[in-house]
Amino acid sequence: MNDDALRRQIRDLTTLIEVSKHLGSTTELVPLLTRVEKAALEVLACERASVFLYDAVAEELYSKVATGESEIRFSAKLGVAGDAVATRSIVNVPDAYADRRFNREIDKKTGYRTRTILSIPLTGYDGAIVGVLQALNKHDAAFDHRDEEEGTILGSLAGVAIQRQMLLDEFAEKQRLVHDLEVAREIQSSLLPTDDPVVTGYDIAGWNRPADETGGDCYDYVPMPDGSVGLLVADATGHGIGPALIVSECRALIRALSTMTDDLAAIVSRVNDLLVRDLTGGRFVTAFFGVLKPTEHVIEYVSAGHGPLLYFHADSGVGEELMATTLPLAVMLGLDATPGDPLRMKPGDALILVTDGFFEWVNASGEQFGTERIFDIVRAHTEESAQHIIERLHRAAVRFGAGVPQADDLTAIIVKRQ
C-alpha cells in the first residue's frame, strides 16, 4: 500500500469513527440523514448522495435528504436503488447510461448528468431493510472495491441508527397522540352534565361511556326560556375524535338556539341547516331533543333519526317503541322538524333514551341485546332510581356480550315520573 492509499484509508476510517459518534448522539431523523449524506460525500468522494427511506407498506423508496434536490418517491422494485433493496447487496454501476436499470428521466428533469452510481442497502439491527444510500459520480473515476467496503461499513452504521431514530420518532408520535386524545377526552367529559336536574315529581339520570378515548355520543340538559328542562341525546356517525367534534358542535348549537326560543321545530331545523353546511363525506347526527314540562307532566320532542325511543307504561307494564319523527341532522337542507305527539307521563312511567350501542351490542353468536331486554330490566326494577336502572342496563349488556368488547359508544337518559 503506497503512502497516498494509506493516508486515504486513515482519513476515511477517521471519518467513519466520527460518523459513528454523531449517529449515536443525533436525536432527530432529518439531521441524522443529513449527517449520513455528508459522510458519504466525504468517504466516497462523490458529487452527490441521497438517502432513500423504505416504505414497506407502499413498497416505495422516498428521500428526505438529497443534495440539491427536493423529495423523490418511487417504487422500491425499480431502478438501481430498487435492485439494492431486492438483493440486499451493494450495486456498483460504472456507467449509468449503459445500465438498463438506470432511469434517465430524472436526469432529464433536473439537468444533472449521472455517470457512476453506488447503491448501498441500509439494514437495521434485525436485518430489515431501512433504506438505500445512493452515491453519484465518483470524482476521479468509477467507484472501486475500496468504496464498496467503506460503503458497507457506512451503510451498517447508518441503517441501525436510522432504524433506531425512526422507532423513537414513532414512539414519540404515539405518545403525542395519546396525550392529545387524553386532552380531547377531558374536554369532552367536561361538556357532559356534572349533575342531574332536580325536578319536583321526577327522577332524571344521564350516563355516557365512549368506546374509544373520545366518543360520538353526548347527552345534555338544556335550560329553556320558560324554565322547563330540555333533554338532549345525540349520536354522530362513528366514534372517536371526528364524531366527538361533530356531536360537540351539535350540542353547542342546540344550547345557543335554545336561549332564544322554545320552538323545538325551529331549533332542530336551524341546527340541521348549520350542520349541513359544515359536514361532508356523508356524516350525520341522530338526535333526540325534548322538553319536560313537569307541571303538565308532558314531554314534547323532536327525534331526528334517533330511534327507537323506549317508553315504559307503569300501569300496564308494557314497553312501547316510538320511531323517529324526522330524518337525521345534516342529511339535507330544509328539514321538516315537526314534533311527535307529546308524551303524557303517568305516575311510574319512564322514558328511556339510549343510543344504539346498547341494543346493538352483540354476543359471540352475533345476537343483539335488543330493546326487549331493556324493557325487562326496567319492568323488574321500576321502583329503583333512574341512575340504578342505567347501571343495571350497562351490566346486563356487558354480561350479554360475554367477552365481546364494547364496539360503540353508550349513552342513556332515563326520565321517570315518581
Care to describe what's here?
Helix 1 (3-25) packs parallel to helix 5 (145-191) and helix 6 runs antiparallel to helix 7 (264-278). A hairpin with a 6-residue loop joins strand 2 and strand 3 (73-75). Strands 3-2-1-6-5-4 form a 6-stranded antiparallel beta sheet, with helices on both faces. The chain has 2 domains: 3-165, Beta-Lactamase (2-Layer Sandwich), CATH 3.30.450; 193-417, Phosphatase 2c, domain 1, CATH 3.60.40.10. With 418 residues, the protein is an alpha+beta fold. It has helices spanning 3-25, 29-43, 79-87, 105-110, 145-191, 241-258, 264-278, 356-359, 372-380, 386-401, and strands at 46-55, 60-66, 73-75, 91-93, 117-123, 129-138, 202-209, 217-223, 229-236, 285-293, 298-304, 309-313, 318-322, 343-344, 350-354, 410-417. The mean pLDDT is 87.
Label this structure with key terms.
single chain; 418 residues; alpha+beta; Beta-Lactamase; Phosphatase 2c, domain 1; 2 domains; 39% helix; 25% strand; elongated
